[in-house]
UniProtKB/TrEMBL annotation:
Membrane-crossing residue ranges in chain numbering: none
Protein name: VOC domain-containing protein
CDD domains per record: VOC
VOC domain mapped to chain residues: 12-163
Pfam families on file: Glyoxalase
SUPFAM superfamilies tied to this protein: Glyoxalase/Bleomycin resistance protein/Dihydroxybiphenyl dioxygenase
């Protein structure tokens, strides 16, 4: 499927900015466990906090804010409670659900083993497909992405994912849901 943005020339993400509770611990995890180089650090004016950037590859960055007065995360609201397959992974509207890193298919298992060797709890391998359950137990031609999930020290849900095939016109076949389709109990009174 040939897709092109005819409105803006976007080349990917400049950065995605998240909030952490402990910048030193965040630097240790993202630099030493995930191997992402720390490329820019900023102390915000008037003691308002810090803003650090990690190289996520291909000119993209993952950034973190640290604010001295930020509120604690609310699992199940501001982010998922845990990994898919291990509990609840729904999060609130306008929250961050997860960040997926594109990794090479031929390194996928090696990277999963490296994380486990570093003491990171990883979820099961998920072969995302178009079946009723959306998950294939074994690889097949319908699997479009293979992934596994894990969390950073603040509980931010992360995913290593590798695309297994290109998309076609058949991959865009669902009618978008609206706010009216949401469960009434989940909407504020």
């Amino acid at each position: 499927m040939a897709t092109k943005n005819t409105q803006f020339e976007m080349r990917g993400f400049s950065h995605v900015a998240l909030v952490c509770s402990d910048m030193a611990r965040t630097v240790d995890f993202y630099s030493n466990v995930l191997g992402m180089p720390l490329v820019k650090t900023v102390d915000l004016p008037d003691g308002a906090g810090q803003h650090f950037f990690f190289d996520a590859g291909n000119g993209n960055s993952l950034a973190f804010f640290w604010f001295p007065d930020s509120q604690d995360a609310v699992p199940g609201v501001s982010a998922p409670v845990t990994l898919p397959g291990f509990g609840e992974w729904i999060s609130a509207v306008s929250s961050l659900n997860h960040v997926a890193f594109d990794v090479p298919a031929d390194k996928f298992i090696e990277y999963r083993n490296k994380l486990k060797a570093n003491g990171v709890r990883v979820g099961p391998i998920v072969n995302h497909d178009n079946s009723e359950t959306q998950v294939a137990l074994e690889m097949n031609d319908d699997v479009y992405v293979r992934s596994f999930y894990f969390q950073d020290p603040d509980g931010i849900l992360l995913e290593f994912a590798c695309w297994m095939r290109g998309f076609t016109d058949r991959d865009v076949s669902h009618t978008p849901k609206t706010a009216a389709d949401r469960v009434a109990a989940s909407l504020p009174a």
